[in-house]
Amino acid sequence: MAGTEPRGTLLAVETGRTISDRPERTVRELSRQPLIDVTWSRFGPGERGPDPHVHHEHVDAFYVVEGELLFGLGPDVEPVSAPSGTFVLVPPDVIHTFRNDSQGTARYLNFHAPSTGFIANLQGEIPSWDSFDAPADGGRPPADAVVTPPGGGERLERADRTLTILAEHPLLSAIDIAFDDGFTVDPHTHDDEVDSLFVLEGAVEFLVAGEPVSTGPGTWASAPPGAEHRFRNVSGARARLLNVHAPEVGFVARSRG
Q1: Which of 20-34, 62-76, 205-219 has the lowest mean pLDDT?
Q2: Short-list 198, 197, 203, 212, CA closest to 183
Q3: Region 33-53: what's the mean pLDDT?
Q4: From CA 46, how far away is CA 122, in angstroms rounded?
Q5: Which of 46, 56, 67, 226 has a C-alpha 20 to 30 A away from that of 106?
Q6: Residue 211 pairs with which residues in a beta bridge?
Q7: pLDDT of residue 5
Q8: What's 135's DSSP letter?
Q9: Cβ neighbourhood burial of 191 (10 Å; 0-12, 13-18, 19+)
Q10: H or E element at residue 251
Q11: With contact defined as beta carbons under 8 Å apart, do 91 and 144 qualify?
Q12: What pLDDT is attached to residue 1?
């Protein structure tokens, strides 16, 4: 039937649907679909996240856009500092928590893949979801979590771009892509994964309803399975994107190849 083709999302994080907004924190919805829920959050100084907890069926991942978060991992809640540019991926059954322990404001992206009802629970639509108190047995070792600091990750140099693998897990992968002016990814679709992009630096042109739209840092784009998407660097210099795939079904391997 015409008009039923899957469609992607393109928005500035400030215009995402507000889930909560109060002086100490703001949470906005960027993407809500079965394979991944994505939110953007602002945490004021001293603001705390949830108590130590685990998830059994999905990964909980974070990208710190601005400021600094302090994570606690494992049964001893080992502190891990995450300044701007850090990517953290917590796999199922690893105890974790986080807070803003600084005097400044922290802003971050949060990914739950698959969704398992994360945003639905935040919106009060369902009473519970895949989140549980820290288990008495300590859960999985905290070393199973992935913490990639700014400048870290596996670097892959190409003639017109640099790919830095920040996290690789069957449920989610994240790559920092720095690419030359004019570099274009042609229109394409994915059959069984959500392809999401967050503009970090430069001007990037996306297609919206077949029309080119130039965007800047802080723009979120997400293409569900079957949705055609494309992007191009129109900066006049290098641009950078955070590229997240959920689930990971070979994108990282293709990038290495």
Answers
A1: 205-219
A2: 203
A3: 98
A4: 21
A5: 56
A6: 208
A7: 63
A8: P
A9: exposed
A10: helix 251-256
A11: yes
A12: 37
CA pair distance 64, 50, nearest whole angstrom: 17
Spatial separation of the C-alpha atoms in residues 216 and 44, rounded to whole Å: 24
Residue type, 185: V
Mean pLDDT of the chain: 95
CA distance 186 to 114: 27
The two three-digit tokens of residue 163, written as one number? 């790919």
Tokens 């992607």 found at: 8
Using DSSP's 3-state secondary structure scheme, residue 138 falls into coil
How many C-beta atoms lie closer than 10 Å to residue 33's C-beta? 17
**In 67-200, which residue ranges form alpha helices assigned H by DSSP?**
118-122
> Angle CA(89)–CA(91)–CA(92) in degrees, nearest 5?
150
Q: What are phi and psi of 251, to 5 degrees?
A: -65, -45
Q: What is the per-residue pLDDT for 4? A: 57
Tell me: cis bond preceding 114? Omega within 30 of 0 counts.
yes
Residue 2's pLDDT is what? Answer: 43
Burial of residue 69 (number of CB atoms within 10 Å: 0-12, 13-18, 19+): buried
Q: What is the pLDDT of residue 6?
A: 73
Question: Taking 80 as the threshold, does the pLDDT of residue 7 lie above it?
Answer: no
Q: From the CA atom positions of the chain, what is the Rg in Å?
A: 18
Residue carrying the six token digits 């309803």? 209
User: What whole-number distance in Å separates Cα of residue 63 and Cα of residue 106?
Assistant: 11
Over residues 3-17, the mean pLDDT reads 84
Give 190: exposed, middle or buried? Use CB within 10 Å, 0-12, 13-18, 19+: middle
**Amino acid residing at 56:** H
Contact 27, 41 (CB under 8 A): yes
